[in-house]
Every structure is written in structure tokens, then in C-alpha cells.
Write a structure and sequence with these properties.
- It is elongated and about 50 Å long.
- The two termini are 31 Å apart.
- By secondary structure, the protein is mainly α.
- Helix 2 crosses helix 4 and helix 3 runs antiparallel to helix 4.
- 61% of the residues lie in helices and 0% in strands.
- It comes from Bathymodiolus thermophilus thioautotrophic gill symbiont.
């Protein structure tokens, strides 16, 4: 299976569960040495990676500061979920964007994407 095509599919997915499953599939195929790292298509410009429509993406300056109450703790955990989700996209972007690197580069970034997907899943559940 072509690593870049599958990575692009995961990167552009707007459905969280699909992005997680595709990232897990990438990791499994990487471990089993079943990924092909040959660029077969021109790299597409990605202005924004796939993400759900809700919640709305806002600048951090517009988010009110959290207090130390239970609600503040919940908001902090929610913010960490967003950070982990964005970390998945960043790792996938590194794989997709740089298609002339050594195989180990891709394997490392796929592993990072997978680990971030695990963090996201643990925290969001």
C-alpha cells in the first residue's frame, strides 16, 4: 500500500473516528513493512487538514482563561484533546509533505501520529 496516499486520506479525513482508524492502519502497515514509500502523485497543497466542522477553530487569544474549579479542569482536558488532535495532523503532514526522505523518517512520523492518536483516544474517552 502506498504510504503517501493513505497518509493523505488520513490527513484530510473530517471524521475523527476515520482519522484515528486510518492512522492506526498506517502504523500497523509500517510495523509489518507493508508500506510503499514511492511518490506516485504530485504533492497537493493542503491549506487546512481534515477536521470536524464543530467545534469552531478559534485563536487561543479569544478563549477565556480557565479557573481552578471542576469546570476549569474539564475545559483544560478539552483543550488537551484539541492539542492531541492537531498533533495527529502535524505528524501526518510531515509524512505527506516530504516525499523524498529516508524510510526511517516516515516510520518515525507515522509512529508519532499513532501515539498522538492514542493520547487523543485516551483523553477524549
Amino acid at each position: 500500500m502506498n504510504a503517501f496516499e493513505l497518509t493523505h486520506q488520513a490527513l484530510m479525513s473530517n471524521v475523527i473516528d476515520d482519522k484515528i482508524k486510518l492512522t492506526q492502519q498506517l502504523q500497523s502497515l509500517s510495523i509489518d513493512q507493508k508500506l510503499n514509500y514511492k511518490a506516485t502523485q504530485k504533492i497537493q497543497k493542503i491549506p487546512n487538514p481534515g477536521r470536524p466542522k464543530k467545534p469552531e477553530l478559534v485563536r487561543f487569544q479569544s478563549v477565556p482563561q480557565r479557573d481552578k474549579s471542576n469546570l476549569g479542569l474539564i475545559k483544560t482536558i478539552h483543550a488537551i484533546c484539541h492539542i492531541e488532535f492537531n498533533a495527529i495532523n502535524l505528524a501526518l503532514d510531515a509524512v505527506y509533505r516530504f516525499q523524498d526522505m529516508p524510510k526511517q523518517f516516515y516510520q518515525n512520523w507515522i509512529k508519532v501520529a499513532f501515539e498522538e492518536s492514542q493520547h487523543f483516544t485516551l483523553i477524549s474517552n
